[in-house]
Amino acid sequence: MLKLLSSFSRISISQNFPNKLHTSNQLNLQFTPVLFAEPLKKKKKLDPSIVKGREDRRRKKLEKQIRRLEKNARQLKPIEDLETPFTLIDEKNIRTRKLPEITEDVKEYRAQLLKKWAKFRNEENLLDFKTIDRMANAQKKALDELRFESEELYQQAIQPDIGMIPIVCVGPVHTPPIKEYPYIDGDYIDKTKVYQGEVTEPK
Fold this sequence. Notes:
This protein is mainly alpha-helical. The protein has six helices and two strands; from the N terminus they run H-E-E-H-H-H-H-H. It has helices spanning 2-9, 48-71, 86-90, 92-95, 104-149, 151-157; strands at 12-13, 21-22. Strands 1-2 form a two-stranded antiparallel ribbon. Strand 1 (12-13) and strand 2 form a beta hairpin. Helix 5 runs antiparallel to helix 6. The chain starts with a helix and ends in a 46-residue tail after the last helix. The relative contact order is 0.05.
């Protein structure tokens, strides 16, 4: 009974429709959100000649860029490392060494020395090949005898030695290190030359 009375207490009669009942709130007045706006500014009327001049300048600028790109389309970027500087070309006569002429005796001596060196190296290589073949044959013979005695020992012998794999070799370098060398820290300035028509990535 109390629930029925509470529901009738929320019923209201609309003034516009007195014969209809509803349980929702009346929507006689509504408010829209506040919009802080200002009236639009009146556009200034420009002279048609000024507008046309701007468009012509923009079009000419684009056409100039297109012509420049078409001109440099087949132009390859030069490799500075493979090109001789002009300063060295100008100083060619100054830098050219005038070596004395080699006599026939010196030429004959050098030729004989080169032949002797080639013969020595050939004999040394043949000796190395023979030594390697002898060691390989001895190893194969020893493994065959071991396999004849025990298959298990043979399988263990042919396994690779894991302890010898992580080997580190330190050999000579081009220039020896300088002890207590004062390293200088500085700024890096990119002086890479940018050619016409080349597109560079922004940094």
